[in-house]
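TL;DR need structure tokens for one chain.
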Amino acid sequence: MIGVRPPPPKVCSPSVADLPVQLADPLAPRLRAVADVEGKIARALDALGPLAGRDVAYLDLPEGPLRERLAAAGAEGRYLPSTDPLVIDAADSSMDALVSLWSGFRGVHDAELREADRVLRPGGRLLVVHDYGRDDVSELRGPDAPEYGAWSRRNGPFLGPGGFKIRVLHCFWTFDSMDEAREFLAEAFGAPGEVVAARLKRPRLSWNVAIYHCTRGGETVPPPALQPAPASAETGADSTS
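>> reply
TL;DR here they are.
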């Protein structure tokens, strides 16, 4: 009997993979230019890895400021797309660190963790970037995104059975002027953007970013048995500026 080959994994990278929202050109590059101009995300990723001088795979990190900042810190690596189901184009035990940016690890699932463990060397670092919410940017997206609630609970999928720790970065979208901020937010987000822009006292939006991080790799870490998080759990995080 001839076996049936399963279909190839679907590439699921969003158009703005290094940011939490999908915008069409020319809005996407404009957003990249104003997001985290202080470079907090790149510095935190390198510190939590560390990443500089090591074998690193980045899921969904297109060319742009964040990649440039990581390269300037010596933290270059392989740039790969997310797929559904997750299949990482890297050999077994070939990476010291795996970094996923917004579009990957939408929650925590056994199959994804097993794939991360496959490509990571024992003691490797898995870093997953998502939004944390409780900021101006979350008001542009609406309150229902899971990263604003279930994911950051102490017994949620990341901090509970997933075994991750969390670093929260207090970042910004920083514009050159109030007029630029108002024009961009209205064009990119419509009425919600106009509401947020109307109350700004200076040309920047607060943007809290969560980096979930843990040590995994090889056969040293068995995949956890994950359960849905209760809806009423408390949240907890270690914040950093």
